[in-house]
Amino acid sequence: MHRLIRTLAKGTALIGGVVLIGLVILATLSIVGRSVNKMLHTDFFDGYLAGVAKALLDLGIGPINGNYEVLEAGVAFAIFSFLPVCQFYGAHATVDIFTSALPERLNRWIIAFWEVVLAVTILLIVWRLYGGLERYYGNGETTLFLQFPVWWSYAASFAAGIVACIVAVYCAVIRIQEAVIGQNILPSEFGEP
Fold first, then answer.
1. What 3-state DSSP class applies to 142?
2. Is residue 113 exposed (0-12), middle (13-18) or buried (19+ Cβ within 10 Å)?
3. How many domains does the chain have?
4. What is the largest CA-CA distance in the chain?
5. Which residues, 6+ apart, have CB-to-CB distance to 160 below 8 Å?
6. Which single residue of 59, 137, 141, 145 could bond 66 by disulfide (Cβ 3.0 to 4.6 Å)?
7. Distance separating alpha carbons of residues 168 and 122, to the nearest angstrom
């Protein structure tokens, strides 16, 4: 089971990483296109290189239409895709200035408590994400420029969110087990198991 959960978490993170790389490329191309388009409309190009500027503009050089819509949907998916691997490896940001002086056994119980709270929070978020998915699927709303259904991005995020829920519940159970036995099962600040 442990290996399956780890593979699921890593696989989802890899998919999220590929999507994020694609989004970075998309944003970069859009920014470069917008900058070049702006440059082609300057007095210099209008006066001295009007033919070149017109030819380049006719090719469609400019910002990518609808890139904000794709970025919005893609980043939401990427965030949900990275949640499972962060959960599995205990890599969420923590502030332990007060707890670092406490005994290791008490720290394990504190970590287990917050792991349960985080699992419940993830379950609640994904439950509400499903509510949004149902609403947008039912009303047929589309994005402004690209006209793709809004529910598509909700569905992608929900799929990654389901994986996050599975990993979160598994990690909560394992962190409680770690607190009871006083040994690492999952990677954490106490080291690899």
1. strand
2. middle
3. 1
4. 78
5. 12, 15, 16, 77, 80, 81, 83, 84
6. 145
7. 7
What are 53-74's pLDDT values in tens digits?
888 888 888 899 999 999 999 9
Q: What is the CA radius of gyration of the chain?
A: 23
User: H or E segment at 128?
Assistant: helix 104-139
Is residue 186 a part of any domain in this protein?
no
Residue 147's φ and ψ, nearest 5 degrees, are 60, 30
Angstrom CA distances, 15 to 49, 163, 175, stand at 44, 12, 26
Report residue 161 as tokens: 């969110």
- Amino acid identity at 51: G
Give 140's strand partners: none
C-alpha distance across the termini of the chain, in Å: 15
In a domain, 175, yes or no: yes
pLDDT in tens, 131-171: 999 999 999 999 999 999 999 999 999 999 999 999 999 99
Helix (H, G, I), strand (E, B) or coil at 101: coil
In a domain, 188, yes or no: no
> Quick one: tokens of 75?
């980043």
Place of tokens 């017109």: 54
Is 28 within a domain? yes
This prediction's pTM: 0.87
Instruction: Name the residue type at position 190.
Output: F
Range of the domain at 105: 2-181
Q: How many CB atoms lie within 10 A of CB 95?
A: 7
